[in-house]
Amino acid sequence: MSRRPDPTPPSRAPSPAPGLYVHVPFCARICPYCDFAVTALGRSGPSRLERYRRALLAEIELRAAPLAADTVYFGGGTPSLAPRGFFREIVEAAVAQGLATPEPFVFVEANPEDLVQDPGRAARWAAEGVYGVSLGAQALDDSRLRFLGRLHSAKDVEVAVSRLAEAGLAWISLDLIYGTAGQSADSLAAEIGLATDLPRVNHLSAYELTVEPGTPFGRRAASGETLTTEPDGDGLFRVVHETLADSGFPAYEASNFAAAPALRSRHNRKYWSGVRYLGIGPSAHSFDPERSERSWNHREFGDWEAAVLRDGEPTAGRERLRPAERALEELLLRLRTADGLDLGDFGSRYGESVVRANRTRFRNWETLGLVRLEGGSADGRIEPTLEGLAVADALAREVNLDALAQDRNAA
Amino acid sequence: MPSSSGPLPIERVRNFCIIAHIDHGKSTLADRLIQRCGGVSEREFRDQLLDSMDLERERGITIKSNSVSLLHEAKDGETYQLNLIDTPGHVDFSHEVRRSLMSCEGALLLVDAAQGVEAQTVANHFVAMEYDLEVVPVINKIDLPAADPERVREEIDEELGLDPFEAVLASAKKGEGIEEILDAIVTRIPPPGGDPADPLRALIFDAQYDTFRGVVLLVRVVDGAVRPGDSVRLLRGDREYVVEEVGLLRLRREPVEVLSAGAVGYAICGIKRIQEIAIGDTVTASEGAAGAALPGYREPRPVVFSSVYPMSTDEYGELEAALGKLSLNDPALTYERESSTALGFGFRCGFLGLLHLDVVQERLQREHGLSLLLSAPSVRYRIATRDGEVHEIENPAYYPDPAIIDGSEEPYIRASILIPERSVGPVMELLTERRLATSRMNFLSSRRVEIQAELPLAEVLFDFHDRLKTVTHGYGSYDYELLDYRATRLVKVDILVNGERVDALSQLVHEEKARPRALAYCERLSEAIPMHNFKIAIQGAIGGKIIARTNIRALRKDVTAKCYGGDVTRKRKLLERQKEGKKRMKQVGNVQIPQSAFVAVLKSSPAA
Question: What are the backbone angles phi and psi of residue B250, rounded to the nearest 5°?
Answer without folding.
Answer: -85, -165
